[in-house]
Amino acid sequence: MTTQSSPAHKAVSAFQNADKVTAIIVWLIGVATTRQALIEVGFATIPGTVAALGLQWILTRVERRVWLGKVGIAPVIALALDTLANAAGMFPYITKFGDTSIWGMLQAAFQSQTPFTTSAALGVCIGLGYAVARLPEQLWSE
Q1: Which end of the chain has a smaller Cβ tally under 10 Å, C or N?
Q2: What is the DSSP string of 27-64?
Q3: Tens-digit pLDDT profile for residues 87-116
Q4: How far is CA 81 from the centre of its chain?
Q5: How many CB atoms sit inside 10 A of residue 6's CB?
């Protein structure tokens, strides 16, 4: 006798699968940002890609303990390094945000001519770097 899944069960299963796919995509974004940072310090493209994959894998496995509540020095350092590697890879692009129509729209909406500063770019990069470090585990675990 076979059992059929209810439409609600199928919907939940599809949603969970979508979360796992999204987790993989975000993790690969972390690999790309880490690769960018490694290339900027002198790695060639292929070794930088291989190193970024390995580094992100190791950091993800070690920092997982933070998300499980097993906070220790190594997991916290891994999370900090992951966040900084992600942020560093984004920084060259985020610093150009002030030249985009999005920033122009925000300036017009708030009637401001405030420039998008390097300090603002740093803050955005740290926030996005942390999100890229955190989201894969959160999405995978739900």
Answers
A1: N
A2: HHHHHHHHHHHHHHTT--HHHHHHHHHHHHHHHHHHHH
A3: 999 999 999 999 999 999 999 999 999 999
A4: 12
A5: 9
pLDDT > 70? residue 69: yes
Give the separation between CA 39 and CA 113, rounded to whole angstroms: 35
Structure token digits, residue 64: 């997982």
Residue 95 identity (one-letter amino acid): T
Question: Token pair of 5, please?
Answer: 């899944």
What's the mean pLDDT when you consider all of the chain?
91
Question: Hey, what's the torsion of the CAs at 99, 100, 101, 102, to 10 degrees?
Answer: -120
User: Is pLDDT of 25 > 70?
Assistant: yes
Q: How would residue 9 be classed by pLDDT, with cut points 50, 70 and 90?
A: low
The Cα–Cα gap between 45 and 39 comes to: 7
CB–CB of 19/136 below 8 Å? no
Calculate helix-pair angle for 118-141, 45-67, nearest 10 degrees. Answer: 70
Per-residue pLDDT at 142: 74
Look at residue 141 in the predicted model and tell me its pLDDT: 85
* The two structure tokens encoding residue 107: 């300036």
**Type of residue at 93:** Y
**Token output for 111:** 């009637």
CA distance 19 to 24: 9
